[in-house]
Structure prediction request, 121 residues.
Amino acid sequence: MTQMSMLENYLKLASSREQSISANMANIDTPGYRTRDINFESELNKVMSAGSRPSEDGAEAVQLSPVVHEVQGLMERPDGNNVSLDHEGLMLARTQLQYQLAIQLIQNHFHQTLSAINGGS
Prediction:
């Protein structure tokens, strides 16, 4: 798996996690709603190990289907909802930082490629 395809998968996974967090925030007032999340590190390991195996058609892109699970250990309100804006805000900030890191790595990759094309100047 090339560096670019790894970064592409990383970005897709971060985007999926951000969607999960957004859904949690949107359902803060939904009675009985349970906070959901993606185990980012575990899903990333799955994608990377799947990408290290050669595919039949030679394609490098790995099909992402992250497992969304219910978050345990959060305080539940009387209506059965356990969404915490503090927790979700923290997770959103962390996910955005992960996304920004990947974008910077992609920019660096293209900068190095352009530098090589221009003869290192």
DSSP finds three helices and two strands in the chain.
